[in-house]
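Q: Predict the bound structure with 2-oxoglutaric acid.
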Amino acid sequence: MDSPSSPIRLPASLEASKIHALPAAAYYIADFISEEEEQAILHKVETAPKARWRQLTHRRLQTWPSDLVKDTLLGARPLPAWLEDPVVARILSIPVSESEPNLFASSPHGRPNHVLINEYPPNTGIMPHKDGSAYYPVVCTVSLGSSLCLNLYKSKEDGALDPEPVWRILQEPRSLLVTTADLYSEYLHGIEPISTDVDISEQTIANWSLLRSPSPYQDGLNERQTRTSLTYRDVLKVSKLGNKLRPLFKRL
Ligand SMILES: O=C(O)CCC(=O)C(=O)O
Ligand SMILES: [Fe+2]
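A: Predicted complex:
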């Protein structure tokens, strides 16, 4: 639960946070966590045991509570407290509408059970992709440290990727972005490996009216610093058997 002194004021429902430019439900809450909470989470990410990090060519990532094996989460381990609180508690506290108590009310486990942490120094990104079938199609992304643009793409008639994004979403530090349904299954998402996002304006950014502050981007530019993202999802398949197998896996 949030302490009474929490500076965060969440919307009464997600309706007010809807990104209307997008074809399926998507929401953006600019100040989802406080600066203190952002710093506390970043500290936990940075001081996690070395074995937690998986180094890719340009980017590194952590998975909590563990990697998936054949799209399955082995063992019903909970998320650590620092990933659960305040983020999960807060996600579950916001009604989607009058008839939908929260984003995960109809998901298999009623809450996100998995977090992917991606770190993007300037000039790194993630290729356009779809997230696949392992997850319930509600993706909650908390951004830390720096702003950047997430691009949404669609495939052309011949199946090839159209390299021009159809929409761009600017994610500020401490924001929550939620994407669902078709945005998850029909479109691809990616982040360009650049140091500066360009051509940022009311005309080009789908969530412009929901930004905490558009003023840093009056020149149309966003100079990136290292941005860390926490991607919260509900993994559909959880194997309790994993609890017994866990001692076989060296990873924490
Ligand atoms: O960092 C992000 O915002 C996107 C991450 C992502 O798409 C993924 O890990 O599947
Ligand atoms: Fe993704």
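A: The chain has a mean pLDDT of 92.
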